[in-house]
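Listing 4. Sequential folding, example run.
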Amino acid sequence: MASKQDVSTTQQPWDLQASPFRADIRILFQSALVVFVVTVFIGILNGIVTGLNILKLSQDVLLTHVHAGTLGWITLSVFALGLWIFGEGKASTERNTYVRTLSILGAVSIPVYVLAFLSGNPIARAIFGFPVLIAFIGLFGWLVARSRQVRLGVPHLAVLGATFTLIIGGTIGVLLQIQFATNGNFLPNGAFAAHPATMVVGYLILIGMALSEWRLVPNTGRLPRAGLIQIILPFIAGFILTFALLANIIPLLGLNALLEIIAVVIYIVRFAPRFARISWLERSSARFFVLSGIFLVVNVALLTYFLVITITGASGPAGLLIAVDHSMFIGVMSNALFGLIQDASQEQRSFWPWADDVLFWGMNIGLTGFLVALLSGVKILESIFPPIMGLSILLGILTYFLRLTRLSKPGAVEVQVRPS
């Protein structure tokens, strides 16, 4: 006899219906999607006005764009990822007040922090950065506690390493806001560069690899040595980069680049055969995860190029650093996170199924064109491709938000149990 709340042993471990934290995960994903709207609107506007050379958006608006994307969209989704992947093995009916409180704290404090950047008020930024940092620490503490109760694989270790690095990057960010608010000068000059660098290298690269591993590699219960090395190297590289920038030791950037290259070579060897088998026309999450992996390689290549010209003092394309950021934020993370949310809302995949194609192709064609524009310096292309990318993403946001809203309540979907 089938039970409505028992979970099959053959069921995929990422079935959201089987997670005791499905309500919290849905809240976090929906909050992330809402904040992402801010990022997209500013991105479209900036692309148009920059490409047509009409005007330049203020620094406050651009910082809002960056933080709404990095914290609102990506980090709220990473909170959901952490609850999802570390919640495996818990009873589907179990409730956790700490997790609910942590989810609400993240879903409220991060959007408020984003608004503080839009306000341009340095005191507000300094004050509202603290609850966000507390949420980071709270998530990491829960992950560490859960790590003693789950079988740790490469994705789990990558999420742990990324979240720890997030705390480091977040701490530097909050201290920077305090310094700006007090007109102080207690941080090294390299702190302004160390903050975003830590977030991209030590944090987001690891999250990208975690998502690839969790979704594209079958769980055998073993800890592959190559996979372990693949995530340890970026973790170490992130700290080397942070220290090098804080201490202004430029030659250490070369060591960072070397570790990143070795890690991505291992990644290519492990994942290329899986990428080759993808069906690009099938409306599945797999194509999002595969393209996320491809852009991960592109991002590390661009980042390595940037570090090389920084060390040597050579000149590069004016838009290189922006290309590095967008290849990560959109190419790696947005592809992977939309794939993750597509899986989370798979129960409602029949709702606007065509939107999956518009999102996938529009976002990635728009991103590719935008990267070409940035690296080639052809300004007019910057007014063409960002709207294609942005409008496709807005459709995806609306579609997935509505799908998540329409998900059935816990226990409403009958899950068949197979005899062991």
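-- end of first protein; second protein begins --
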Amino acid sequence: MSAPEPEPEKLRLGGMALRNGLLVHGPTRWAVAVRTPGGEIRTASGAKPRFHGADDVPGLRGLARLAEAFAVIPLVKRALPEVRLPFQDPGVLGMATGAAAAGSLLRRRPGLGADAAGAAVALAPAMFALRGGELAAYHGVEHKAIAAYEEDEADAADAAKEHDRCGSNLVAPMLAANVTGAALLRRVVQRPGPLAGVAVALGSMAAAVEVFAWSERHSGTRLARALRRPGYEIQRVLGTREPDERQLEVGQAALAEILRVEGAAGAAR
């Protein structure tokens, strides 16, 4: 009697909530599903850009993965013009401009308080974007669809709308790293210029991604749970909303498409 076939390994999936649907990232492909104004669900997919050479370099590997995620966005828009991105809104763009100006003014003031306030102000556009429309609901769709796949749940509606790998878990370590980096920079340079600020921002993001990865590898520890707690509360209170059946249907279409194209990619290899 032959041994049973081993269960196929689960894909590691990530995603981005859209204003009218869901973008899902797989190891080598991306897939998107949106609901058009006419009520139709449309999907598209393609190969992910990859930035090789930094996979084993702490800090750089996280920035490379983030760069890949951003590089997908124009490909998605080209393949499916109906996609509405999270910041594709005049009000959010105006808020982002104001937040950038306010953050710049705050950082010119000395002291940790000003640095912390400037870093916090930078989050305002994201918080504003989640207040209206369907973005928060599709953020919940993202978490539910991926969790249902990972946990073999038949109905994504039964999955939690919060997820341990949500990007909100980057917020607390990124703020802490940004404030620390700005304080150290002031000790070295009396009046830091824009390039120094960009360097601190990139360093903060790199540090936050490493903390994020460590928390996932040590998910059962008390420290990892504490590090994820602020992100979980952001998801619970503001970042996600329980989606309706039509929104979940869009999430299912995006999940089915990423599994289809990743399966085809695996067969080709």
